[in-house]
Amino acid sequence: MAPIKFTIEKKLKGKLGRAGILETPHGTILTPSFVVVGTKGTVKGLTPQQIKDVGTQVVLGNTYHLYLQPGTEMIEKAGGLGKMMDWQGPTMTDSGGFQVFSLGVAYGKNISKFVKGEKELSLPEKRREAGEEPSAKIVSIDADGVMFRSSIDGSAHYFTPEKSIEIQHSIGADMIFAFDECTSPTEPEHYQKEALDRTHRWAKRSLDFHKSKENSKRQALFGIVQGGRFEELRKESAEHIGKMDFDGFGIGGSFAKEDMTAAVEVVNAILPEEKPRHLLGIGEPEDLFMAVESGCDLFDCVAPTRIGRTGSVYTSSGKINLPNAKYRDDFTPIEEGCGCYACTNFTKAYIAYLFRAGEMLGCILGSIHNEYFINHLVMNMRQAILDDRFEEYRDEFLKKYL
Fold first, then answer.
1. Average pLDDT in the 21-50 region?
2. Domains and CATH numbers, the chain
3. Which of 111, 223, 256, 391 is the most buried (most CB within 10 A)?
4. 86, 94, 297, 395: which one is catalytic?
């Protein structure tokens, strides 16, 4: 018996998008759905009840960080990720492959998943005072796996596909990912091809190891499509990974904003329609509409809580920055009609004061509102598909938001 069951309720006419039902061992997810990121087994600043109250259906943890701290032995003793963090709903873990990028070529540089160009970050104060330069990277890749340096104490750890799956088995999430190499958008095509071949070999090794264990009966394994900015590599990867016996699929790697839609569409047109698809690391409202329309069922991003902790919050008219002076005497909610705890109980003036005063409640309220906003935005997209009005809803929202 498969560990998950995915049913398509309704397709978006003329597009790849769909509304579905994804059944997991710890609950049912109505898709499309936004996946809230709890990197280290916690959504920063929010309790499990608050996570639930903002409409969250599924939480994602980070394999690399959970492996380093608190460690898989502690997580297993606690009964798995969900039980440890008191989250009763579905859970996911990534493979650790993103850290190949973030701790590799991107380390110490302002490089994201999107093409922007390189800009050196300022060094941490203690390194600047000591006259030290950061190492170019703290990972090393070979044919069999990746050597990571711990971001905590600098100790060396070697991840192979088998090791990544073994760790994810111990963490115990409902849905896990094959080990892959997430490449930088700045890498040339010849390297993207080399990394893609490596990702495909690692996908098979991940799948073979997973299928050999009892965990495969209760944990779903997703294969990851890579290929960077190159359409032919994306197609090659989708065809290769799509033919393998994964329970679902992830779309990873780096993009240019202007070609992301085409890249996602070309992949989802090839991947098996009957299995769920997860777009990794995407979470801005305009990108979510693209993802849904292009056939993605799940997507995760740290942005709602990360920007919420700085006072940047989503509204239907675009993002606003609460610490700005203009909100000092604004006694209206962040968003009129919003049902989140922050908007139903507090004003912009009060929350802006919290940020100016350095009070942690400001970060909590900003995070609550942003997660509520994004979760309900995607819920509305789902309902719009069911009601045959997705394009109308998209155009209305984006006209005001942008």
1. 97
2. 5-96+162-301 (3.20.20.105), 302-402 (no CATH)
3. 223
4. 94
